[in-house]
Amino acid sequence: MLRRTCAVALIALAATAPAASAHQGSPNYLSQIDNVQPAVDGLSVEVLSRDDRLLLRNTSGRDVVIEGYDGEPYARVLGDGTVEVNRDSPAFYLNDDRFGDVAAPKAADGKGAPRWKELSRTGRFEWHDHRMHWMSQTPPERVKDATEQTKIFDWSVPLDVNGRSGAIAGTLFWTPTGNGGPPTAAIVALAAVLIACCIAVIVVRRRRAAGGGDGTPGAPQENKEPVEAW
Predict the structure, then answer these.
(1) Which of 19, 68, 115, 214 is disulfide-compatible with 87, CB 3.0–4.6 A?
(2) Collapsing DSSP states into helix, strand and coil, what is residue 66?
(3) What are the φ/ψ torsions at residue 3 (nearest 5 degrees)?
(4) CA distances from 170 to 33, 91, 188, 207 (A)
(5) What sign has the CA pseudo-torsion 208, 213, 215, 221?
(6) What is the pLDDT tens value at each position of the chain, 230 positions in all?
(7) pTM of the shown model
(8) Alpha-carbon gap, residue 157 to 168, rounded angstroms
């Protein structure tokens, strides 16, 4: 029974911990891609975790440059699949926090020559972009009824494809949250408590087994050998 309880707790913790610790979007918002221009075969973009990140794939053989918040080159996925970010772009630092609550170095103003840093050669670039989500923990004023889906705004992320200007265009919506299922944090906490209890019981049992049958560590065991009669 003890082993079964521990196994159930471990399964529950394993199933919920990734969702709790991973970088996630907000269940109250949904950001969607409307179109990508210029339309090029092999170039695609999708939203990850509802409103959290954008994923650009480039197998077009063309160089794609994503612009930062001041129009500076922020990142690029080259035609050969090389993925690079510009460390001189303020976006390189601001995108580390969902609400941009970080300070970019003064030298990284996006006005100098790009300082490219290679990330991979996968042809895939995934990044958090503040232009495609709501930048406040307070709901927007236009959400009058939290139980109804509401359009918040249209958004755009400028890019360049082999010298042709374009953009990733999308729309952000407020979406009602469902009431089904217990909160993830509660499940994780319960599983952690169960595991701690299981560990404690196992430790106590081992100490009893090592120390003696009466549960006292180091207690001498009763002599069961027969006594020879004289």
Answers:
(1) 115
(2) strand
(3) -65, -40
(4) 4, 19, 35, 62
(5) negative
(6) 555 545 444 444 444 333 333 457 899 999 999 999 999 999 999 999 999 999 999 999 999 999 999 999 999 999 999 999 999 999 999 999 998 989 999 999 999 999 999 999 999 999 999 999 999 999 999 999 999 999 999 999 999 999 999 999 999 999 998 643 444 444 445 556 567 656 766 666 777 777 654 544 444 444 444 444 44
(7) 0.68
(8) 5
